[in-house]
Amino acid sequence: MPIRIADTSANFASVSRPGVSAHLNVTRVFQFYNDVLIRRGVDDRGSYLDNMVNCISPEDEDPPQWGNAIWWKNKMWYGQIAIRRGRMRSLAASLDIIGHELTHGVTEHTSGLVYRDEAGALDESFSDIFGVLIKNRSRGEKIYSNPDRWDWEIGSGLGERGKPLRNMKNPKLSGDPVHVREMSRFDPADLEEDFGGVHTFSNIHNKAAYNVLTTRTRARGPFVFTPDQVAQLYYFTLQRLDRVATFEDVLETMLDVVRTVYRVQAEQTQKLDAVTKAYAAVGIPRE
After folding, report:
1. Is residue 135 domain-resident?
2. Is residue 3 part of a domain?
3. Whose CA is closest to 98, among 144, 35, 52, 142?
4. Do residues 137 and 32 lie in contact, with contact meaning Cβ atoms separated by under 8 Å?
5. Would you say 272 and 212 are in contact if contact means Cβ atoms under 8 Å apart?
């Protein structure tokens, strides 16, 4: 039975540091969606959100550890991992993870991507993209405006041997593919526990998004898209996708979004070219 955090002094940090982290980081995610994308919460209706901290799942891992955080039943659930001398680190402290999980909720209320195969990989990738956008925006405008200075890791320290779960700049660091042609080297039977490889093949689309974010108009010139423009580009695309969308569907939908949003011919052509090349570099061609 969940116990609500309460303290007569309002010093909640003395009662539950994970609870404070959860509320602070959820607020940052909500502010991003509100300020950049004009979205009122996960369901766009300003719904109330419960944060459930110090969660365990004995079927998955021996308590008190549970190295997971999930969006489930319209709530956020946070586990924790042991770090040293019996101390635990709550996943509520990881802003990119919270941005990732709450974006699953946004996807649920928009395109409703089926969590399987390419559509499921896109579901995971959109969550990674927004998780990284939100994390780097929280680091201040100087860093946020220059993706060359970004932290591209998802789940820093939460992967095997203290590595990140994924890295958008270099997916190979976690043994994941960066090009469509690499998909054939994975045995489908080995991917069944991951719904057809949703956490593996998502990295191909992650790399395409990294390419979009870091493409410049010329060497050492300005970026073709600002980070806010990239956020809007992927958000508008997500809203228009079919539930069983493929990588190619995302590219075609995104190009349509560019044509709709950017009406000045020279700017539109430049942005269309940037997106097309970013996706071609990972083996996703235009139809």
Report:
1. yes
2. no
3. 52
4. yes
5. no
What is the chain's Cα-based Rg? 19
Distance CA 218, CA 235 (A): 26
> Which residue is listed with tokens 């780097």?
136
Structure tokens at 9: 């002094």
Q: Answer yes or no: pTM beyond 0.90.
A: yes
92 three-class SS: helix
Residue 1 has a pLDDT of: 46
Bigger pLDDT: 60 or 6? 60
pLDDT tens across 241-263, in order?
A: 999 999 999 999 999 999 999 99
Please say whether the beta carbons of 119 and 197 come within 8 A. no
Distance between CA atoms of residues 287 and 278, nearest Å: 15
| Range of the structural domain that residue 21 is part of | 12-280
226 in any annotated domain: yes
**Which two tokens mark 178?**
């960066």
Q: Report d(CA 39, CA 212) in Å as an integer.
A: 23
Rounded Cα gap, residues 4 and 75, in angstroms: 14
In a domain, 285, yes or no: no
- Overall average pLDDT of the 178-195 stretch: 96
Q: Domain count of the chain?
A: 1
**CA–CA gap between residue 187 and residue 175 (Å, rounded):** 14
CATH number at residue 113: 1.10.390.10
Q: Which long-range contacts (CB under 8 A, 24 or more apart) does 138-143 make?
A: 138/28, 138/95
Distance of alpha carbon 10 from alpha carbon 280, whole angstroms: 53
Q: Which two tokens stand for residue 81?
A: 């991992």
